[in-house]
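We emphasize that the prediction below concerns an isolated chain of 115 residues; any contacts that depend on oligomerization or on bound cofactors are therefore not represented. The input was used exactly as deposited, without trimming of termini.
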Amino acid sequence: MSESLVHADLLVARDAAASLAEHVKANGLNQDPLVIAAIGDLQVRIEAAEALLQGVAEGSPTVVLQARLAARHAQARARELHLDLTGRVLDAGLPDEPLSTLLRRLGDHHLNLPV
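Result of the prediction step, given as a token string:
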């Protein structure tokens, strides 16, 4: 698994977050506590994925997988918020492994690989 996939997933999440921030400000939603909390949640997810991505330099396949999962979760939340707040669906992007497959791979690593 490549860190370039993590970068691609993060790019979608960051772009969606920027678009959402513009939409929220332009439509006077920046005082709504639920919207503020949702945007904060998205930012935490993006920053968590970025922090894991910095650890990818170690070369551990597990860290790459964890960063990928975090980035995919951030991307999924960004898509969900974009639809909820703008009424528009973001482009699907490139076809990819389902989150369930990535989660199984990480679980398998933790449960079945020798320590």
